[in-house]
Amino acid sequence: MVSNPVHGLPFLPGTSFKDATKAAFHRSQTLGYRNGYAVVRHPTVGIGGERLQVNQLSQAELDELANKAPVLTYGQPKQAPPAEFIPAHVAFDKKVLKFDAYFQEDVPMSTEEHYRIRQVNIYYYLEDDSMSVVEPVVENSGILQGKLIKRQRLTKNDQGDHYHWKDLNRGINITIYGKTFRIVDCDRFTQVFLESQGIELNPPEKMALDPYTELRKQPLRKYVTPSDFDQLKQFLTFDKQVLRFYAIWDDTDSMFGECRTYIIHYYLMDDTVEIREVHERNDGRDPFPLLMNRQRMPKVLVENAKNFPQCVLEISDQEVLEWYTAKDFIVGKPLTILGRTFFIYDCDSFTRQYYKEKFGISDLPRIDVSKKEPPPVKPELPPYNGYGLVEDSAQNCFVLIPKAPKKDVIKMLVNDNKVLRYLAALESPIPEDKDRRFVFSYFLASDMISIFEPPVRNSGIIGGKYLGRTKVAKPSSTAENPIYYGPTDFFIGAVIEVFGHRFVILDTDNYVLKYMESNAAQYSREALLSIQNRVQKQEGPAPELEKEKKQEIENVVTQLPDYPKLSEQGTACPGSGSTFTGTKGRPWIMDQELSKQTKEDPGVQELEALIDTIQKQLQDHPCKDNICEAFQIYDKEASGYIDKEMFFKICDSLNLPIDDSLIKELIRLCPHREDKINYYHFVRAFSK
Question: What ranges make up the beta strands (E) of 91-226?
Fold first, then answer.
């Protein structure tokens, strides 16, 4: 039950009264959670939520009251609570003892030093009695430095006892893993800590120094006599004065070499040389400004410096006998620098003025080093592989995307649907091929040839298309420059070689005769003779047909210019009736006209030269006049050809006053056909 005392009355029984309106009699909560832990809270209100009229004490005050010894009580006083325990890893956290020490290391492989002194720092960690040894890193020492012994507890004897901070002091030696370290000093914290623990410290010692390192610190002794040359005066006199030369480096003799231009700067203030590259737009090179940095260039080295590793070490004054100076740079002379030969072809105006005043050289003309561009190399076509036409295959070598070769459109329109047809026989040693006949079709619009073999029953050979329409090159031409067969190459008796097969033209159609009549100037002498002989050999029952064929030959001849009769020149064979006497009083007219058309043929020129030689020899030795009749007697067909045997018998019977070698050469140059010789040129050579 809770009662409220009346103000001014003591809190005694009978002086308190109940509150009849009070309905809550619960106690306040004294337990709570903070950061996941249960904690006790002191109540601030009483039963029913009434405020307690007491002073709240803090935890420190409560602890003080608990530890306060009573003075007004009787009996034994209470024992005070023990002090709070602090572990070592908390008490000595981040407290490290530092000692300065060194150890000596033997150097057996060096002649300059026998031992080496290495300075280290020894750290002792109080929290776990561990130690570490660290050597300060020296730049470019060449020694692996840093942490020599990582942090750990180190044994001091064979019994397994570990080093303690009580074992460490200044001026003592400690052995760690076979190495003896001499402790010479410690830092201020270590000194205070050891003295606070009652340890008497030894006096500090001086750190030992490495003898080789101290030797390197001493300056090198020079045994060079000082020069009287005043470099300061040279610097003040020639400051900012630079000689500029224009040079080229011609490296075209080596593989992928080229001719490149450079600018050479010679600084008068310190006799240094600098070589700069001259870059052009789109030259394909990285824009490096310098080929050689500014430095003095040696001209003559000492004899012992030939094997000196110049690519690794710098060249000092002891290895050089003579340096490059301004007098070595002359326009028009080569200069070798670092293995490259530079040709100086020009300089600037200041350099010309300097050479004129200093050396008396006034003539330094510019030298033209420009090279003429070589003529463009004509691209060579690869060898012909035999497929398709050469012109069509060559288009793949000219452009990336080949196009069809251009055609003569005017020629195609003029000669459209014009075809020359010939009958031919296959020249073959096989007996079955002798009776085979072929029809050659020559297309004037495209200069192509097609071959058709008429089928023959029971011949055992399948006829039909023998060769499709294509261009056929002559066997004497090359694959790179082919010479194709033309319409003038087809005549009776001509031999046409088509891809290794030889064909002999036997006959033509009437359209060929009309074409030859309209283009007689294009055909050779032999072609016109073959047509003339063909017309004469044909025998028909209708005299009108024979008269028409003779008229065709007459039309061919009438297109040729008039010539004097051979009887007027004393070379005709009157009354012989030979086909060589011609028509309309123009003997040999067809051959003489055609001989002019073939002046460029070397065989015809050789034949004409031989005939002139024979006729000159006959001026002093007259010849018989019946030579032409002697050959025509045995030429019953009037074809102009007789057998070889009969030809040689006639020559022996004539007793010609000419050297036998000339006669044999003349017979060789005369046209031959099927073991027969044309005696036309032979008779012409001995005619008066």
Answer: 96-106, 115-125, 130-135, 146-152, 173-176, 179-186
CB of 462 within 8 A of CB of 453?
Answer: no
Q: Which helix (H) or strand (E) holds 470?
A: strand 464-470
Residues 539 and 552: their CA atoms lie apart, in Å, by: 15
How far is residue 149's CA from residue 145's CA, in Å, rounded to a whole number? 11
What is the residue type of 426? Answer: L
Helix segments in 399-509, DSSP class H: 409-414
Tokens of 171: 């001026």
Does the CA dihedral 253-254-258-260 come out positive or negative?
negative
3-class SS of residue 92? coil
CATH topology assigned to domain 231-359: PH-domain like (2.30.29)
d(CA 321, CA 300): 5
Interatomic CA distance for residues 152 and 632, integer angstroms: 134
Does the structure show a pLDDT above 50 at 393?
yes
Q: In whole angstroms, how far apart are CA 264 and each of 240, 241, 343, 363?
A: 15, 14, 11, 20
Which residues contact residue 614 at a Cβ distance below 8 angstroms, ignoring those fewer than 6 apart?
A: 658, 662, 666, 685, 686
Task: Identify which of 337, 678, 306 has the alpha carbon closest to the alpha carbon of residue 525.
Answer: 678
What residues does CATH 2.30.29.170 cover in the chain? 88-212, 231-359, 403-523
* Alpha carbon of residue 180 to chain centroid: 64
Query: Which pLDDT band, with edges at 50, 70 and 90, does 50 fall under?
Result: confident
Distance CA 597, CA 544 (A): 33
The boundaries of every CATH 1.10.238 domain in the chain are 605-686
Query: Could you tell me the pLDDT band of residue 594, with boundaries at 50, 70 and 90?
Result: very low
Sorted by sequence, the CB contacts under 8 Å of residue 205 that are 6+ apart come out as 170, 171, 182, 184, 185
CATH fold for the domain made of 605-686: Recoverin; domain 1 (1.10.238)
Q: Is 553 helix (H, G, I), strand (E, B) or coil?
A: helix
Q: What is the pLDDT of residues 631-647, one digit of tens each?
A: 777 777 777 787 777 87
Q: Which is nearest to 424 in space by CA: 526, 525, 493?
A: 493
Residue type, 168: L
Give the whole-angstrom CA distance, residue 315 versus residue 173.
48
Query: Helices 510-518 and 525-537 meet at what angle, rounded to 10?
Result: 140
User: Residue 551: what are its φ and ψ, rounded to 5°?
Assistant: -65, -35
**Token pair for 251:** 């490296």
Q: CA 628, 629, 635 angle in degrees (round to 5)?
A: 95
- State the Cα–Cα distance between residues 337 and 299, nearest whole angstrom: 8
Angle CA 203–208–209, to nearest 5: 150
Residue 76 sits at φ, ψ, to 5 deg, of: -75, 135
CATH of the domain spanning 88-212, picked from 3.30.70.870, 2.30.29.170, 3.90.226.10, 3.40.190.170: 2.30.29.170
Q: Which fold, 403-523?
A: PH-domain like (2.30.29)
Cα(88)–Cα(95) distance, rounded to whole angstroms?
11
Token code pair at residue 43: 């109540």
Q: Please, how many CA atoms are within 13 Å of residue 284, restricted to the half-sphere of its CB?
A: 2
For 336-378, what is the HEC assignment?
EECCEEEEEEEECHHHHHHHHHHCCCCCCCCCCCCCCCCCCCC
Report pLDDT digits (tens) over 545-588. Answer: 445 544 544 443 344 334 333 333 333 333 333 333 333 333 33
Phi, psi of 277 (to 5 degrees): -85, 145
In the predicted model, is pLDDT for residue 382 greater than 90? no
3-class state of residue 310 by DSSP = coil
